[in-house]
Input
Amino acid sequence: MSSDNNNNNGDSALQQQQQTISLEDLPLSQLQNIKNQLETEISGLTEAFTQMKQAQGAFRECKNCIGMLTPESQDKTIMVPLSNSLYVPGKISNIDSVVVDVGTGYYVEKSTADGLSYYDGKIEYVQGNLKKIQETMEQKQSSYRGLMEVMQFKISQQQQQQQASAKQTS
Output
């Protein structure tokens, strides 16, 4: 019973710490710091989105390559990549199984159907992550636009005050 009581006290303390502060109440210097932070976050999310799109493209390409295996492919000569720049000639000896890159230098032999299924799962997983990143980016960009409006308003107010005080002193 005392642990529930302690938990409730912690929740109310947390709620008190998470009070909302209006942007209009913050000085311009703090708004500039928030702006810089939002720009950094948006940039990081944009980079992550681009990398995820590239990964998704690579998974789609792998899936397409598996899908191109047909009985006519048997014993055809192909170029096998050993690295990004080194290829060696090879022959397709078995169209019923493929070697799948499962990450960090590990490869697994799978049936053609399992290989297609594996890449379908990867494509779907990446698509889900892309959607989450997109939603977060949209929220951050909306916050950024709102912040910029407040900053422009505050700068305009400061300029008006400076002009008014300059007129009074002259």
